[in-house]
């Protein structure tokens, strides 16, 4: 019995992680229904671990719970929350970038370099590739910063921040931004890295996501 329960928990966690990634990368857009039967078929599991995974995403504030006859849905954004997330995003990113630049190791910098995508000279870029690179780059910065406090803050708001980042992402400039930011961090120039970040994160960064 205990082994079966552990297996269900493991399945639920696996599905929760996969659904979270789909949501923050924009594959499941705000308002999209999360139908337990369909998701169960997609992952080859029963509805119970899917339901548990969705409950976990509700706790992360990425999903709005459904009713008796309606499916849960991917949570959207209201203007007030977007304004708050914009401030949280800018503050948290400045801290993690500064600490990453100061605490970097050669091995960590190499990992960061490998994440930076190749951007075509004509400015075209695959949005999905850029989106994944931005999220992987951000994740690596937290590893480099090596801060329990920043990790805890990111656990509280990181899922919502990364979700909105993907919706506001401009692939035509994001790849070049990562390249410039990587070079500043590789040199250990925290002030330059913050300046580059400031140029990229404008006060209206998330305006494009706001409801009309």
UniProtKB/TrEMBL annotation:
Q: Looking at the Swiss-Prot or TrEMBL record, what is one Pfam family this protein matches? A: FCD
Instruction: Please list the residue ranges annotated as the HTH gntR-type domain.
Output: 9-77
Keyword check for DNA-binding: yes
Which top-rank group of organisms is this from?
Bacteria
User: Which InterPro entries does the record match to this protein?
Assistant: GntR_C, TF_FadR/GntR_C, Tscrpt_reg_HTH_GntR, WH-like_DNA-bd_sf, WH_DNA-bd_sf
Key words, A-Z = DNA-binding, Transcription, Transcription regulation
Xref: Gene3D superfamilies: GntR ligand-binding domain-like (1.20.120.530), Winged helix-like DNA-binding domain superfamily/Winged helix DNA-binding domain (1.10.10.10)
PANTHER family from the UniProt entry: GNTR FAMILY REGULATORY PROTEIN (PTHR43537:SF45), TRANSCRIPTIONAL REGULATOR, GNTR FAMILY (PTHR43537)
For this entry, the protein name equals GntR family transcriptional regulator
């Amino acid at each position: 019995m205990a082994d079966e329960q552990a297996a269900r928990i493991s399945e639920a966690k696996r599905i929760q992680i996969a659904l979270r990634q789909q949501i923050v990368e924009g594959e499941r857009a705000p308002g999209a229904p999360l139908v337990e039967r369909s998701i169960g078929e997609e992952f080859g599991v029963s509805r119970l671990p899917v339901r548990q995974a969705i409950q976990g995403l509700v706790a992360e504030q990425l999903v709005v719970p459904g009713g008796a006859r309606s499916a849960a849905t991917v949570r959207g954004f209201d203007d007030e929350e977007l304004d708050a997330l914009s401030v949280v995003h800018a503050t948290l990113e400045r801290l993690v970038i500064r600490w990453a630049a100061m605490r970097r190791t050669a091995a960590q910098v190499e990992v960061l370099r490998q994440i930076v995508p190749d951007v075509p000279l004509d400015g075209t870029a695959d949005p999905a590739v850029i989106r994944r690179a931005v999220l992987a780059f951000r994740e690596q910065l937290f590893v480099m910063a090596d801060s329990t406090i920043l990790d805890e803050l990111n656990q509280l708001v990181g899922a919502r921040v990364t979700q909105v980042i993907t919706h506001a992402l401009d692939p035509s400039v994001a790849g070049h931004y990562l390249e410039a930011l990587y070079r500043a961090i590789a040199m250990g120039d925290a002030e330059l890295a913050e300046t580059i970040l400031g140029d990229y994160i404008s006060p209206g960064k998330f305006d494009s996501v706001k409801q009309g």
